[in-house]
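> call design_seq(struct)
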């Protein structure tokens, strides 16, 4: 079975190597009531103090008038919590929605886990667009996601340590969005700032260290933006190549979903705060690599670049019936440990795992924290003779 199935292309240049706790704010009767409700979340939502400082009485910018605008949405459209607490823009926009008409026609596609090849160029020019999109994650479930390039996770970016990445984000969504690259060392207040619909932000960085790094929307509340699908992986290869291998990228993400509206399930911010996900998935679709496994051959070295988007829980990565001969704790090829059965990848972190497939068979790869493995964080590595 081919593990390079097609998926929608990303809007990047071809040479890049890239293939409602919040609902407590709805229409408070007074500014005092608004502040009382907001104080409950002051530790849960980044920057809430600055956001509250800009709030005025009902009907003024940042006050209850914002919630009233969101309440006027069309019936039958799921409303994800909005980003009116964004401290970069102090936006007063209504909540973002994902239209549900034609949801039944949204096609399922397997997310290709193969690491894209490196470009021969040492400068990568990457242009992503942020937008809302319905994503079919299984035969019977479509979710109202916020995305980079129309998919969750977003496109895999592959570069070398020391390469120059020229990145542009254009926002085509109704609410502010931004981009935080964990592989960058850059002033986040400037580079990772939020932009409104129709605007763009551009910045350049050079990854210093090799490894598997997360990228994600950094607009407040960050929990909501990551939890609604705005994340992906940037894989930074070392300047001196690692031994040849079949290389795959797995990005674990949690899904916290509300009841379906017109066949589409919105993401639920209250559930995100409760930290009890409905699904946990590698590359955005629960159990997808159990239904459609990754195939390699006996003798292949397999390299998993494992990134954990969270937004909250760690991933105890394990391959049943095998051991990792090498796990890189930091930038490959240094910091290696050997003969490892399971190793935990923190939320917001990434690691590189290697094994040599010297025995044919079907080997499940899982989050061995099985409460999450049973919710979809499982797949099969099939080793063909």
């Amino acid at each position: 079975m081919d593990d390079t199935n097609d998926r929608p292309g990303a809007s990047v240049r071809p040479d890049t190597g890239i293939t409602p706790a919040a609902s407590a704010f709805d229409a408070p009767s007074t500014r005092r009531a608004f502040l009382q409700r907001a104080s409950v979340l002051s530790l849960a939502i980044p920057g809430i103090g600055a956001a509250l400082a800009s709030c005025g009485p009902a009907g003024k910018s940042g006050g209850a008038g914002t919630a009233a605008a969101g309440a006027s949405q069309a019936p039958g459209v799921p409303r994800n919590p909005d980003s009116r607490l964004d401290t970069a823009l102090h936006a007063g926009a209504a909540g973002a929605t994902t239209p549900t008409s034609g949801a039944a026609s949204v096609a399922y596609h397997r997310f290709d886990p193969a690491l894209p090849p490196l470009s021969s160029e040492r400068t990568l020019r990457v242009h992503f667009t942020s937008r809302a999109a319905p994503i079919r994650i299984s035969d019977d479930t479509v979710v109202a996601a916020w995305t980079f390039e129309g998919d969750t996770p977003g496109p895999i970016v592959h570069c070398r340590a020391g390469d120059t990445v020229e990145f542009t984000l254009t926002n085509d969504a109704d609410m502010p969005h931004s981009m935080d690259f964990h592989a960058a060392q850059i002033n986040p207040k400037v580079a990772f700032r939020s932009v409104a619909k129709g605007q763009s932000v551009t910045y350049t960085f050079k990854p210093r260290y090799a490894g598997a790094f997360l990228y994600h929307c950094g607009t407040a509340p960050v929990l909501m933006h990551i939890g609604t699908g705005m994340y992906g992986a940037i894989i930074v290869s070392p300047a001196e190549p690692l031994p040849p291998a079949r290389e795959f990228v797995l990005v674990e993400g949690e899904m916290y979903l509300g009841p379906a509206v017109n066949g589409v399930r919105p993401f639920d911010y209250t559930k995100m705060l409760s930290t009890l996900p409905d699904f946990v998935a590698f590359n955005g679709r629960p159990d997808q690599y159990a239904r459609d496994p990754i195939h390699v051959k006996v003798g292949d070295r397999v390299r998993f670049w494992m990134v954990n988007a969270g937004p909250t829980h760690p991933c105890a990565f394990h391959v049943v019936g095998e051991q990792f001969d090498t796990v890189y704790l930091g930038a490959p090829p240094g910091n290696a440990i050997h003969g490892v059965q399971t190793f935990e990848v923190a939320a917001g972190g990434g690691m590189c795992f290697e094994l040599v497939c010297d025995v044919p068979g079907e080997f499940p790869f899982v989050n061995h924290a099985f409460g999450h493995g049973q919710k979809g964080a499982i797949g099969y590595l099939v080793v063909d003779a």
